[in-house]
């Protein structure tokens, strides 16, 4: 498409520029505009009152003919907003022998602008290519009233009449003698006929309306209507470039006749049971939000974009995830994790006096540009003293700093709420590199890593300019396995044993490299019917223990179902527990 399908102008000589009349100043102030002078106020009035942006050049400051052309690399323009813009060949400009005088359809230049000394003017009224205007405005960061209208489309048929009306207002206010208008190019013919079956109103909107009502609405809105029922021929007015088909005509009829004319219709109710509306992933997202909010965390919504540096720190930065047209230099890549945005938000809060914050977010993260690479994550951070029990100073004692176990508890709570088999999860130390290597972990089910947690690495905090202490977690909701299908949604009956539970403590000496989770798993597997809970309550390293060993003390709960356990029964189970832990971990029972 041409940069400028039509360009109309005329010269008005002998004008006397000054303050505009009171009625015009009042109209402009009513919509938040500041009156400047009569010539500028007329162009602003035309922009808002008639959707016809215009520009007025001071004829004395224009040298030679005005030319519409593309910009040239390195050209600059001091615009009316006082800023200097560097142009390139993708932009459309109005130029003369002095150089660029105006950014076409966006903003005029300071050099050819009108002031109190202006006596002769050139009024320009043109049609511009909407895509070029939008791209130029976005590239230069200019959001002018003219750009807003041209990139959305103005009435092409009003190009010359708009010039005439602006001339009339200028002569009425400032005087002067106008030349004949000059039109370069041609006004495009936007006439199009839409075949409009009247039955479409009923079919698409459910609204009953007579032919007379429909015809009256369309004609009142400026449409030309011909023909007769059952099909009308409708020609949209030139200023309605948004009307493309018969569905658009139905919308016009409905919005004027009113939605109260649309009858309420019940949804069909079949004999079959209603199916679930929400997907499992949507349910998990809701449950994760509730669980984390219930732990005193505040939900945040951060940008889906991060800087390339942050993306690389959190496992991203792939070329296919870089934005071709970022809205800001530090928002150049699709986020590989929710944590960069949350950590930056915590730093922003701290800089404004809110140091102890606990934030979470549930949203999309991106490992690649394919559909399978987009995942739903639930992540959170705690900073300072924002522990689940409370933050800041209190008369009963000052809260301690957040630690890795706070992040682990948050992750486990959210996983449990989402239906993950928390009791079967293993904790491993292979957390991603943005965590502190000695104070972090991964929650996994076999090879399926569902979450990671820990203290954020000091180097990452330094790069993001955020001070610690700060802990974080991230759950990949897509990786939570689906629960087994049940015959009924009814909860099973509560099964409580009538017999007293028995608790026994064991202290095992194992190598320092042995994971505590392995001890718990071995003790749990010694007797899956009797052993109902296993927990660690002590860890000892030091005097009396070899330097390469550690003592791990666990508490085992035995819950009988059929009869009260005797001392012999308990000793047998205890023996099996010790044997199983010894076999799987190489542990010895501490004397």
Structure overview:
By secondary structure, the protein is of the alpha+beta class. It has a seven-stranded mixed β-sheet, with helices on both faces. Strands 1, 2, 9, 10 and 11 form a five-stranded antiparallel β-sheet that branches. The model has no long low-confidence stretch (mean pLDDT 91). The termini are far apart. Helix 1 (22-30) packs across helix 2. The protein is built from 15 helices and 27 strands. Strand 4 and strand 5 form a beta hairpin.
Estimated radius of gyration = 37 Å
Number of strands: 27
Shape assignment: elongated
**What structural category do the secondary elements indicate?**
alpha+beta
Helix tally? 15
Strand order of the largest sheet: 15-18-19-23-22-21-20
Name the beta content range: 25-35%
Low-confidence stretches: none
Can you give keywords for this protein?
alpha+beta; elongated; 7-stranded mixed sheet; 5-stranded antiparallel sheet; 591 residues
Briefly, what is this?
The chain is of the alpha+beta class.
List the helices and strands and how they pair.
Elements: E1 6-13, H1 22-30, H2 38-50, E2 55-58, E3 67-70, E4 76-78, E5 84-86, E6 92-96, E7 99-103, E8 107-108, E9 120-127, H3 130-140, H4 145-150, H5 159-174, E10 177-178, E11 182-185, E12 194-197, H6 199-205, H7 211-220, E13 224-228, E14 231-235, H8 246-257, H9 280-294, E15 298-299, E16 305-306, H10 308-313, E17 333-334, H11 339-351, E18 358-366, E19 374-383, H12 404-417, E20 426-428, E21 435-445, E22 448-456, H13 458-463, E23 470-476, E24 502-511, H14 516-525, E25 531-540, E26 549-558, H15 567-585, E27 588-589
Parallel strand pairs: 15-18
Antiparallel strand pairs: 1-9, 1-10, 1-11, 2-9, 3-6, 4-5, 6-7, 7-8, 12-14, 13-14, 16-17, 18-19, 19-23, 20-21, 21-22, 22-23, 24-26, 24-27, 25-26
Helix pairs in contact: 1-2, 2-5, 6-8, 7-8, 9-12, 14-15
């Amino acid at each position: 498409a041409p940069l400028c399908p039509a360009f109309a102008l005329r010269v008005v000589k002998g004008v006397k520029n000054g303050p505009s009349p009171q009625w015009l100043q009042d109209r402009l102030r009513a919509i938040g505009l500041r009156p400047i002078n009569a010539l500028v106020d007329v162009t602003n009035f035309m922009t808002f009152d008639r959707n016809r942006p215009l520009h007025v050049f001071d004829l004395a400051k224009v040298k030679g003919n005005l030319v519409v052309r593309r910009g040239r690399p390195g050209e600059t323009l001091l615009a009316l907003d006082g800023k200097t813009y560097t142009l390139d060949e993708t932009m459309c400009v109005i130029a003369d022998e002095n150089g660029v005088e105006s950014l076409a359809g966006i903003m005029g230049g300071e050099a050819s602008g009108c002031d109190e000394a202006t006596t002769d003017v050139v009024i320009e009224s043109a049609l511009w290519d909407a895509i070029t205007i939008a791209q130029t405005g976005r590239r230069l960061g200019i959001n002018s009233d003219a750009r807003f209208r041209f990139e959305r489309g103005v009435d092409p048929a009003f190009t010359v009449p708009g010039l005439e009306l602006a001339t009339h207002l200028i002569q009425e206010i400032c005087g002067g003698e106008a030349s004949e208008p000059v039109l370069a190019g041609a006004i495009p013919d936007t006439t199009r006929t839409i075949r409009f079956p009247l039955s479409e109103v009923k079919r698409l909107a459910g609204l009953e309306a007579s032919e007379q009502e429909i015809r009256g609405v369309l004609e009142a809105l400026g449409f030309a209507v011909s023909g007769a029922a059952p099909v009308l021929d409708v020609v949209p007015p030139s200023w309605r470039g948004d009307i493309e088909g018969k569905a658009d005509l139905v919308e016009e009829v409905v919005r004027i006749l009113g939605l109260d004319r649309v009858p309420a219709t019940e949804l069909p109710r079949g004999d079959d049971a209603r199916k679930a509306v929400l997907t499992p992933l949507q349910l998990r997202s809701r449950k994760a939000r509730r669980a984390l909010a219930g732990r005193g965390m505040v939900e945040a919504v951060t940008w889906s974009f991060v800087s390339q540096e942050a993306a690389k720190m959190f496992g991203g930065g792939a070329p296919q995830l870089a934005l071709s047209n970022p809205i800001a230099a530090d928002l150049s890549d699709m986020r590989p994790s929710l944590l960069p945005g949350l950590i930056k938000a915590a730093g922003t809060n701290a800089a404004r006096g809110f140091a102890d914050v606990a934030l979470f977010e549930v949203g999309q993260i991106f490992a690649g540009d394919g559909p399978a690479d987009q995942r739903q994550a639930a992540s959170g951070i705690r900073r300072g003293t924002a522990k689940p029990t409370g933050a800041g100073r209190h008369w009963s004692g000052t809260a301690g700093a957040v630690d890795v176990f706070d992040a682990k508890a948050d992750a486990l709570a959210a996983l449990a709420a989402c239906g993950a088999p928390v009791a079967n999860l293993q904790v491993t130390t292979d957390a991603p590199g943005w965590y502190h290597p000695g104070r972090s972990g991964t929650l996994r089910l076999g090879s399926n890593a569902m979450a990671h947690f820990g203290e954020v690495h000091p180097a990452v905090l330094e790069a993001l300019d955020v001070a610690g202490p700060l802990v974080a977690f991230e759950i990949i909701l897509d990786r939570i396995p689906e629960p087994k299908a049940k015959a009924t949604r009814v909860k099973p009956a509560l099964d409580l044993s009538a017999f007293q539970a028995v608790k026994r403590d064991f202290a095992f000496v194992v190598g320092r490299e042995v994971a505590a989770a392995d001890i718990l798993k071995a003790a749990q597997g010694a007797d899956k019917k009797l052993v109902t809970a296993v927990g660690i309550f002590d860890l000892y390293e030091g005097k009396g223990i070899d330097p390469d060993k550690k003592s791990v003390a666990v508490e085992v709960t035995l819950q009988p179902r059929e009869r009260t356990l005797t001392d012999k029964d308990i000793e047998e189970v205890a023996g099996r527990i010790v044997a199983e832990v010894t076999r799987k971990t190489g542990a010895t029972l501490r004397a």
